[in-house]
Known about the structure:
Layout: H1 8-16, E1 20-25, E2 32-35, H2 37-43, H3 47-50, H4 65-76, E3 82-90, E4 96-108, E5 113-120, H5 128-151, E6 154-156, H6 166-181
Antiparallel strand pairs: 1-2, 1-5, 3-4, 4-5, 4-6
Helix pairs in contact: 5-6
Amino acid sequence: xxxxxxxxxxxxxxxxxxxxxxxxxxxxxxxxxxxxxxxxxxxxxxxxxxxxxxxxxxxxxxxxxxxxxxxxxxxxxxxxxxxxxxxxxxxxxxxxxxxxxxxxxxxxxxxxxxxxxxxxxxxxxxxxxxxxxxxxxxxxxxxxxxxxxxxxxxxxxxxxxxxxxxxxxxxxxxxxxxxxxxxxxx
Length: 186
């Protein structure tokens, strides 16, 4: 079960955000500590179904080889402040979607990684302009989170320098989704 206490300011911030956000404990298996309403709407899962579990539950049996390698490198290395990668996820009802996952580390002023911050965006059937709007909102979210985190003695690592070309990302997601819609996937 999760052991970290989440600063009240961070919880309030999550509750007011318009984009899907998740917060995980840094450490053993990175259990989810907090998700917000846009996350619940995107995935179909209720808090009690995901809190205390690793977010990989959304991947089910999808191979996600490249995405898993990037996430593993991010989690295991102090060199990677953030990661952004498309990854195949599944909603609670089993419908697949391509999630543009963004993850960053939240550190105490001592340098200890306390939490993992993540944002999710369904790029499966999205238009490039919607991804651009999401990118802008995620950028504003990160900028507005800094003062909130500072009150709790935390800093967010990384920035949106990891954003890929929106048009190419959406095109790749549509190809991936076409593969998922083919035979062999539910």
